[in-house]
Amino acid sequence: MSQPLRFVLVGTGGMGKYWCSQVFPHLSRLGKGEVVAAVDIVPEHLANAQEFLNLAPERCYTDLARALDENEADAITVVVPPAHHEAVVDAALAHDLHILSEKPIADSMDASCRIAAKVEAAGRKMCVTMSHRFDQDKASLEERVWSGDYGELNYIVHRFTHNCRAFGTWGEFRHRMPDPMLVEGTVHHFEIHRALARSNAATVYARTWNPGWGEYAGDSTVLAIVEMLNGVRVLYEGAKANAATLNGWGNDYIRTECELGTLELDRRELRVSRSGPGGPVETDELMLLTGETWLNPLIAEMFCDWVDGRRDEHPTEVQDNLQCTAMVFSAIESARTGKPVDVQEFLSRHLAQSTAATTLPTA
Prior knowledge:
Rossmann fold; nine-stranded mixed β-sheet
């Protein structure tokens, strides 16, 4: 068995605590990964690395450059706000490290394209933790849609509603950023739609806004229509400032209308319904897939196997994830212009602009 990959974990507060308490202990139990250094600009957050990972205080840093210079590592894990992703990726590539990053790739399309280009030019591997696609219930729905039992997929309806209207209830940085719902929330949902449709997007038309009672600087509410390249349509609702959390994280309502059955996922319960023209509706409950690992621990496990050569590819590697990123920023452009956006043209344009200006970072 190969030696565990050595990681530098950047960001140990907020979501970083989850990585300290759940993801890396899982990798450690499997002998696939270990944290050799942790970094956070808030010293108090480093207590999570010491408590959950038994990391010595001298391996906990507030300075990323020192952490990378003073520790031999194979990979870096990026768990900081999206606006800081590119700087961390640059530092990682300057030290010849692979990259396991929280979503999204970055806080803009151009930055995302630059990151993907730099990773490819450096010959490193990078994947993005699109965790909700790999949750047990979403994976079960995807497996049923493509089982062949229900015929062709026609369209998808996805509802995600949440009461996080008060400042700080969804992490303070999200309340301050532009387009928090799309960049920090819908990015997960668009990746689920790509997986369910097994297609990239052709066009996106979106309307976004923030109601007067939503304590956000940017838009907290999204209504969107997506048409995939294979003809599957998506009707999407995402909201963070509603009066009621009808589902919220992990409890999405997703309906897939298929030729031979209506599949509904609602609060982690999966069912299929059918009826004749006048009813009655016949509904059968469906079992979820079984498995020991889901979400970020599964993605991180696959990342270790990919870097070590035990996997040929990773389902959320950065080049593929540009398609999901393009859906998000196309939706932002659509909301600004009031017009549908051609996602593939949008992606091609930004790739050409960004890669032309990209240079590899150096230590």
